Amino acid sequence: MIYTRLKDLREDHDYTQQQLADMLFINRRTYSSYETGVAGLPVEILSKLADIYDVSTDYILGRTDNTEMNR
């Protein structure tokens, strides 16, 4: 679920993997490995992605279908 959400969010925002990698200050291959499930997603990257997409980390993790962040 998490990997599908990462790709869907990226595509919904019209970002390339390279653009996301640049925003996260990581290599594109590293980002791709998160999206495909080859590598685990570090907490700091998860947090940054939630900020970039303005969604909760629970949404990215597939724990909820609600994209709203509780503030």
Mind explaining what this structure looks like?
The protein has 71 residues and is an all-alpha fold. It contains five helices and no strands. The chain has helices spanning 2-12, 17-24, 28-36, 43-53, 57-61. Helix 2 (17-24) packs across helix 3 (28-36).
Taking all residues together, what is the mean pLDDT? 92
- Please give the alpha-carbon distance between the first and last residues: 24 Å
Give the structural class. Answer: mainly alpha
Report the portion of residues in β strands.
Answer: under 5%
Over the alpha carbons, how many angstroms does the gyration radius reach? 11 Å
Q: Percent range for helical residues?
A: 55-70%
Q: Which residue ranges are poorly predicted, with pLDDT under 50 across at least 5 consecutive positions? A: none
Largest sheet: none
What overall form do the CA principal axes indicate? globular
Tell me the series of helices and strands, N- to C-terminal.
Answer: HHHHH
Q: Number of DSSP helices?
A: 5
**DSSP strand tally:** 0
